[in-house]
Structure formats: C-alpha cells, structure tokens
Amino acid sequence: MSGNAWRSTLIKLLERCGVRINDASRTTEVSRVMGAIKTQSPQPRTFSRGIQTVTLIPGDGIGPEISTAVMKIFEAAKAPIQWEEKNVTAIKGPGGRWMIPPEAKESMDKHKIGLKGPLKTPIAAGHPSMNLLLRKTFDLYANVRPCVSIEGYKTPYTDVDLVTIRENTEGEYSGIEHVIVDGVVQSIKLITEDASRRIAEYAFEYARNNQRTSVTAVHKANIMRMSDGLFLRKCREVAENFKDVKFTEMYLDTVCLNMVQDPSQFDVLVMPNLYGDILSDLCAGLIGGLGVTPSGNIGANGVAIFESVHGTAPDIAGKDLANPTALLLSAVMMLRHMGLHGYAKKIETACFDTIRDKKVLTKDLGGNSKCSEFTADICRRVQDMD
Amino acid sequence: MATLTKALKPILGRQLGNTAKVFGASVNSQRGKPTYSPPPAKYGGRHTVTLIPGDGIGPELLNHVRELFRFSCVPVDFEVVHVDSASTSEDDINNAITAIRRNGVALKGNIETNHTMPSNHKSRNNLLRTSLDLYANVMHCQSLPGVQTRHKNIDIIIIRENTEGEYSSLEHESVSGVVESLKIITRNNSLRIADYAFRLAREKGRRRVTAVHKANIMKLADGLFLQCCKEVASGYPDIEFDSMIVDNTTMQLVSKPHQFDVMVMPNLYGNVVSNVCAGLVGGPGLVPGANYGRDYAVFETATRNTGKSIANRNIANPTAMLLASCLMLDHLKLHDYANMIRGAILTTMNETRLHTIDIGGQGTTSEVVQSIMRIIQSSGPLTTEI
To answer: Chain-wide mean pLDDT for chain B?
Structure first.
C-alpha cells in the first residue's frame, strides 16, 4: 500500500482502539466564506514547502497601490508565494492583431496562476478591452464570484452566501452585430453545446468541491426557446452525473425578484454570459459593491486569473486612499485554488477582523484611514496570529 | 376661415374641398395624438373589456376583480376569452387578439409557456404583445407604507420596450450544437419608446429619465437605442437625461434605489430591472403593470407570474391585479371608480394591515377582498349586497 493508505489504515485501527489522533491532513475545513475552487489535494506542482510563483498584473490607476498592499500582507503572513510582475498593455503582433506582450503570456502559461488589478481601456487606443483580450488569450471560460455578506460592512442584506458562475466566452457578448438596413440593428447571441457543457461541468464540480448543496441554472427558455433551451439541456445532462448536488432551474426574472427579497435561498447559480453579468453585479451590490467583491476566472489548461472587478479609480490613484479588500479577497481565493488553505484562512480572518473592528477603514468603507494604515493593521493581525 | 372657404368654393371648386378633406383626415388621424381615447361606451354607458383568465392564480384573481366590480357597480362588462396554454394551435390566442381589437382594452392573467415544446410554439403572452403592437410596458413601483421592506419610499417608473429586442423569438440552429438568437433593435421602435418615456415623465411631472443599456459591449444594438434616447431627450430640455449600464443599475438599485426617477430600456433589461424593483417594494403581489400600444391597452400584474404553486389555495395577493384593474378604469376615464377602489385597497394595505402571506401576514385572498368591499361600502356611494 502507498504511504497515505498505510497512514489512514493505522489511524483507523488506533481509533478503534480508542486513541484519537489529531491528523491535520484530515481536516476538511473548506471555508464556506470564500469557496475554494479545487479540492484539498495539493496540486502536483505546488510543493507545500516550496515557493509558488504567481504572475502579478498590477494594472492601472489604483492597481499598483493595492497590489503592493497585497504583497505586503502576504509577506507578513509568510505565504510561500513569489510574485512576478508583468505588464499587459496590448501590442500589435504580427498580422496586425492585437495581443498581450509575449513575456506576459509566457509567464502565465508557465505559472498558470495570475492575480490582476484593474485595467483601464483607453477609448481611442484602437485596441479592444484588455479584459477581453486576456479572456480570449487564455480561454477563460468561467467567471466565479462568491458573494458573502461581510460582517462589519453593513448593508440591508445580511444573510448572503452564494456563488455566481457565469459563462464568459459566448452568449450575448459574442460581439457579432451588424446593421441590416439603416435603422435596424441585429445583435447575435451565440450558445454552443460545448461551452454550455463546459460551464455546467465546472459549476457542478465547484459545488461538489466546496460542499455546496445545490446548483441553480438561470435562464429565459420561455422566450429564447432554442438558445437557453440548449443551455438548460446541457445543464440537465451534466446534473445526471452529479447526483449528490441538487439541481434546479429558475427563470431570470424570478431569480431577480427572489434575490432582492430573500437572497439566502440561493446557493450556486450557473448561467450564460449576459444574465451572469447582471446577476453577479446584483449580488455584489447586495454585499456592498465592487470594492469588496472577489472574482476568479478559470480557463482551459489549468490557467486561473483572479482579479478585482472594480474600476481603476483614477481620481484617487496615487493618494493612498484605495481599498485593497477586493484584490486581497481575490488573492485569498487564489490561495484556496492552490490548496494553501491555512494561509488563506489566516489572511481572510485578519481582513474581516479589521473591517469588523471599524477602526482603520478606508473612505469607501466608511472610515477615514489611508490604504497603508489599513494594510498595516491587517499585517499586524496576521503576524499576531502566528 | 370657413366663410373664406365657402367664398372661394365656386372658384377653386372641388380642389379646395378635397384639400380640406385631406387635411381634415390627417388632423383626425391617431398618429399625431399624444393620448389615445378609448372607444366611447356604447351600450347604456357601459364599457366592454376583454378578460383573459390565463393560468395559475390568474383565474381566481380575475374572479375577485369581477366580484369587486359588480359590487361597486362599475359600468364595465367583461368578455371572457379562455386561452389554453397546453394546446399547440394558435386559434385560442388569435381569438383573444380579435376580442381585444374589438374592445380596445383588456385585463389578463399570465398564460403559461411550456418551454419543453418545440420552438415554433411561441409564448402566448409575447404573441399577444407583438400582434397588438403594445410597445410600452409601464410599471410604477411605489413603496406602500404598510408593507415591511428593506428600502423605504421608493418611487420609480419603469418604461420597457415591449415588442422587440431580445424577445424577437428569432432563433436558429446553424450547425448542430450551435444556436444563434437574434436581438433586433430598430430606430423607429427606440424613438417611439423614448418619446413615450419623456412624454409620460412630463405628464407626471418627473424630473429625470435614465436610459439603461449595455452599449459598451453591444455597441451597435444598444448604441442605437442610446442614441435614439439622446435625440428624443434634446426635444425635452426641461427633463434631465442620463444613462447607466445595466449591471451598474442593478447594483445601484439594491444599494441606493432613491436615485432613480423614470427609467427607459429595451426588453430584456426591462425584465430584469422591473423584477428587481418589484422585489424592492415588497414582491410580485403588489405591483400592477400596463402595456400600452397606439390603439390598445392591456393591463396585468407587473411581474407576469403564473403562480402555479399557490394557485387555488386562496393565499395569492390580489393587490397587484386589483391595482391593475384600477389602471384600466383610469384608462377608460372612469376616474371616480378607480380612485374609490384604489383608496380602499391602500387603506386595507396600510391601515388595517390585512396582509396576505407573501408580505408577511396571515390573511387569505378572500379576506382581503372582503375588507376592500367593506371599505368601499362604508365610504362609497351605491353598492350591491356583499
């Protein structure tokens, strides 16, 4: 038998004899707060004692400040993460197509995990949105946003604990539009079997790995019979293979109606692109806005980029007023994805404690402190925990 | 002018007469008229209104409406047309449409759409709206003081384009596993709905109209809609105009709903936003909705729920349907009756606090209707026996 099998057999034997062994590796503590994306089993390339390199994209505006804050906090927590900073301003590649710089692409492909700050899309630059470019380059097909009410940041909704999983590549955002005749515009919503199956599989796996009880598919198949019908069919098929997770379907309008009245009835929501965009922002609004919401993008080939979804806030850039919570919580999501749950819990708890304390909050959270003070407080708490 | 015409008649002869006829005709045409006048009540001063019971809670609520009208001696007769949602033939819905064309006004419950049927079986409700060209769906969301909600004093008017956009039902499967759904936006319809919105805002003395869109992604389609709104806005300098992206809108609605006044938007966003607002003011049982076209008007509940799970259990909230019938009475210019019934409903909601289960009370539907009838009897003029 292999090592693990020997260990578990011995432990079981000892337990039967009445000796309890506190085996740290058996704790299946997966915080329901910021759900982990992968199982507890360590990734083959992550050595628990080794240092994992992560590509860091600071971004524009307040991006560099909050990235520095996150790096400081990770240092204080002694997390085994090494950062490799890269810039992703679009350049024109051979053939005239816009692409991200090849060093950035290589770095991401090598390390597979990325953390991204807010990127701005200059209006007259000629190149498409940077986020779109990243999405296309790494085939980031799933956007995951866990929304949990933050104790200490009061909103009218106190019992939110749900995850929105949104298909990120097709749907209404396919970008295929044309003017048929002058005054009549047609925009095409594309739904394919493969993409729908992929996102449904991801949603169910996520639910299973994070001890979530149900997955709800959100659709409008009464009106868009074929397209949302196809999406629903795929979800139903995938649900057959995941009998341990409950599967329900609900119309988009019913979800919106119920979400605003009682968000606690929802668990994991999976949906096509447009509905996902609207619903994930709705849920972010329920817990306090984009400044405190983490987000992760999962791609094919094991690539995952975690990001903060707020804007670049050029008016407060460089003034040490930014709130690093969103990027920090996304980084915590990243740690869980990599299997470093201990560090994730430590940093997350420190962050929530600081917010709950209300002593050093940044302006958008209702306080008066600077970003550096907020960061220092979290660092202090993290160090105190050791 | 008339005498001049008479004097010139022998000289210009028939030409002037014909011109006068032509001009006369165009003056009488409906196109220039801002508001539609319903057909005059022909038989003994009584109006005939088409009634479509629909499915779920529709039939029982519309029975209550009829009961209430009979009790309050409202001069409205209902022509009931049943639409069988299970049948595949379109005869039923065509009969209903003919009846509405005949009477000009209708009150309806929601007709269920079985989305496992093949896609040539269109949604009956959608068919009704497009055949009668009911281009504007108007929903006035007002917080009722007697109902407990997280946000208070909400007062938003939502105007939603009702015929095109994502609800065009134009879908095809180009290749097996790849489905396209077309979203159509036309200049004429966008101008029409924007004009309706601004006129309504002016009529009701509202300060600001907000256009909700996603033009940063759907540049051509929503871009056209937004452009049309801006064009119309320039003709109403007394009303402020701004625009907001739909995901930001939903976020703002759940955190700061008081910033919105009148909102205008294409079809699908209208669905999402109206359901979010209905949820904010207390649920689907409280808000009435109206669909206006150039020649016809159909009244129903705003969120168009079938309510299958609560059908025939005497627990549905009749408020939405009763308020919709008041909107219908206002449309027929029977304002006294409308105000009497509306006053009684609001008194029941706010003062006697007789609430049904969906808003946290214990009352049954019939109890609420009885209470309304009692209030009408005590305050109003002539009534029949209870």
So the answer is: 87
A38-47, B173-182, B375-384, range with greatest mean pLDDT: B173-182
pLDDT at A274: 86
Structure tokens at A35: 């759900």
Q: In what order do the strands lie in the sheet with A184-192?
A: A177-181, A184-192, B178-186, B171-175
How far is CA B341 from its chain centroid? 19
pLDDT digits (tens, 9 = 90+) for A271-289: 999 899 999 999 999 999 9
Of all residues in chain A, the one with the smallest CA distance to B112 is A222
Question: Which residue's structure tokens are 């995951």?
Answer: A144
Report the DSSP beta bridge partners of residue B342: none
Separation CA B346–CA B352 (nearest Å): 9
Contact call for B271 and A252, based on CB within 8 A: yes
d(CA A175, CA A193): 19
Quickly state the pLDDT bin for B12 (edges 50, 70, 90): very low
CA distances to B198, B328, B354 from B21, rounded to whole Å, are 33, 35, 59
DSSP A55-89: EEE--STTHHHHHHHHHHHHHHTT-SEEEEE----
Closest to B304 measured CA to CA, from A251, A291, A272, A193? A251
What is the residue whose two structure tokens read 């703002």? B252
pTM: predicted TM-score of the whole model, two decimal places: 0.85
Q: Per-residue pLDDT for B53 more than 80?
A: yes
Q: What is the residue type of B241? A: F
Which tens digits make up the pLDDT trace of A241-255?
Answer: 999 999 999 999 999
Contact list in B for residue A225 (CB cut-off 8 A) is 115, 117-119, 121, 169, 171
Q: CA-based angle A70:A75:A78, to the nearest 5? A: 130
A238's tokens: 């995938």
Please give the full DSSP string across A177-208, using - where no structure is assigned. Answer: EEEEETTEEEEEEEEEHHHHHHHHHHHHHHHH
| A282, B276 Cβ separation under 8 angstroms | yes
Averaged pLDDT, B321-330: 96
- The interface pTM score, or ipTM, of the predicted complex is 0.84
Of A188, A193, A285, which is closest to B250 when you measure between CB atoms?
A285
pLDDT per residue over A112-162, tens digit each? Answer: 999 999 988 766 556 667 777 888 889 999 999 999 999 888 899 999 999
Indicate the DSSP class of residue A99.
Answer: E
Q: What is the Cα–Cα distance from B54 to B272, expressed in whole angstroms? A: 22
Q: Cα–Cα distances in Å, from A138 out to A109, A193, A306, A336?
A: 9, 20, 13, 21
Residues A239, A240, A246, A249, CA torsion sign: positive
- Round to the nearest angstrom and report the end-to-end CA distance of chain B: 58
Cβ-defined contact of A274 to B214 (cutoff 8 Å) = yes
Asked if residues B161 and B213 have their Cβ atoms less than 8 Å apart, the reply is no
Q: Looking at residues B59-67, what average pLDDT do you find? A: 95
How far from A164 is each of A199, A217, A282, B195, B350, CA to CA, in Å? 12, 10, 10, 37, 37
CA-closest candidate to residue B121, choices A226, A235, A186: A226
**Tokens matching residue A376:** 């220092």
* Backbone phi, psi, residue B50, to 5°: -75, 135
Q: For A157, which residue in chain B has the nearest alpha carbon?
A: B150
Q: What's the pLDDT score for residue A44?
A: 43
Nearest C-alpha of chain B: how many angstroms from A105? 25
